[in-house]
Automatic annotation (TrEMBL):
The keyword Magnesium applies. Pfam families: Inositol_P. This is Inositol-1-monophosphatase. Keywords: Magnesium, Metal-binding.
Length: 278
């Protein structure tokens, strides 16, 4: 079988197209207009659909044959469905990760794009995450390392005895119960943040700006984390399920999972602590 691959520059072009379309809407009432409930389960705003339509139109214009898995539309074949299935080309995108930050003018949101040839997370081979405020660009190709604005990045080397930064995301169902269980673990960290864009936060770990991200939300979607998973792995980091197992799920809009992302020094500590919590 012949596989037709998209290159990393093509993914970058998609990300910059989204930036051009979305940046003028950041922090505006126009961007915040509510439209409908998207496939991911959240209420889609004008800024979300603008970002997604930009991606769809670009793929159609370039006559790309691909399965698009996206936050708002769910799953849609672009171009020739038969050829897309034959080539096993899949694009997993969150057109705007951090929508609530975006419409309120909080400068922490991104477009997340992962490209796979295959049917599972392990088949993702290229990824791009673009900060829609600063235009910082994270990218990775499988086996080639990870880059931030063209420069190689790597996770930090801090261990739990040092001043580690953590992002922590609680489920909205019974948050106090979840918090009570995990407080002993949280006390080991120097600072805790809740930032609002999973894709960007995973990339912060990849670049060494933070050491860990504990996301306890069962509703966390594949599209939020797909690109970040490859970027973090290529930067020498780790991402795994709460029980310590590898995350390798099917590529589907219906796939949701909590996760822990961290540098290599924190992996043994976090896995050991979560055995106690679970």
């Amino acid at each position: 079988m012949i596989y037709i691959e998209l290159n990393i520059d093509f993914l970058k072009r998609i990300a910059y197209k989204v930036y051009e379309a979305v940046n003028p809407l950041l922090g505006t009432d126009e961007g915040a207009k509510k439209l409908k409930i998207g496939a991911g389960g959240d209420i889609s705003m004008n800024i979300d659909t603008t970002a997604e339509n930009t991606i769809i139109h670009f793929l159609e214009e370039k006559k790309i044959n691909i399965l698009l898995i996206s936050e708002e539309i769910g799953e849609k074949y672009i171009g020739d469905k038969r050829k897309a299935i034959q080539n096993q080309n899949v694009l997993i995108v969150d057109p705007l990760d951090g929508s609530n930050n975006a419409v309120r003018g909080i400068p922490y949101c991104s477009v997340s794009i992962a490209y796979a040839i295959g049917k599972r997370i392990a088949d993702i081979i290229k990824a791009v995450v673009l900060n829609l405020n600063t235009k910082d660009l994270y990218l990775a190709e499988k086996g080639k390392g990870a880059l931030l604005n063209g420069k190689k990045i790597h996770v930090s080397s801090l261990d739990i005895s040092e001043k580690c930064f953590l992002e922590f995301n609680l489920p909205m169902k019974d948050p106090l119960e979840s918090l009570e269980k995990i407080i002993p673990l949280l006390r080991n960290f120097f600072r805790i943040r809740i930032l609002g864009s999973s894709a960007l936060s995973i990339c912060q770990i990849a670049s060494g700006s933070m050491e860990a991200f504990i996301n306890l939300r069962e509703s966390n979607r594949l599209v939020d984390a797909a690109a970040g998973i490859l970027i973090l792995n290529e930067a020498g980091g780790k991402i795994f399920s709460l029980d310590g197992s590898i995350i390798d799920r099917p590529l589907s809009i219906d796939v949701k999972f909590p996760f822990i992302a961290c540098n290599t020094k924190l992996e043994p500590f976090l896995k050991k602590e979560f055995v106690k919590i679970l």
